[in-house]
Amino acid sequence: MRYLIVLAIGLLAGFLAASSLSNALAHRNAWPRALMQVMKHDLGQSRASARGTQCATSQMNDAAARLRLIGGELTPALMPAGSSDRVLAQYIERFQTEVSGWNTQADCTTQAAALTRIDGACDACHRDYR
Fold it and tell me: What is the pTM of this model?
């Protein structure tokens, strides 16, 4: 009976340690995942707005500002300090170039094309790094 109790306590302690470790490992990539979720949301909302007839709105300006801000945070979020990845840096630079080329005051067709290029820059990076 004593062996069963010790075994049960050992299994419980092992389960608690494993779940704690699993939770800690899941949180280590929270910052890059959060950036990607915000980018996905803003890009999706902007693409939906660009399909309509009213695309020069404050929502588009806000989304463009957030995407530009996030574009500047991609390098520290995705690459550890002191490391370098030439390919990832090129993808980040392409994303930043496409976002900076997005004119939120243009007509809907022009904005849709710009958003397609931004989406293409995201997809190119995700093909290699997702």
Answer: 0.74
The residue type of 117 is R
How large is the C-alpha radius of gyration of the chain? 22
CA distance 62 to 53: 18
**Half-sphere exposure of 73 toward its Cβ, with a 13 Å CA cutoff?**
15
Residue from 117, 85, 90, 92 nearest 103 by CA: 117
- Asked if residues 11 and 57 have their Cβ atoms less than 8 Å apart, the reply is no
pLDDT band at 58 (very low <50, low <70, confident <90, very high): confident
Question: Which positions ≥6 away from 115 have C-beta within 8 Å?
Answer: 43, 46, 47, 50, 102
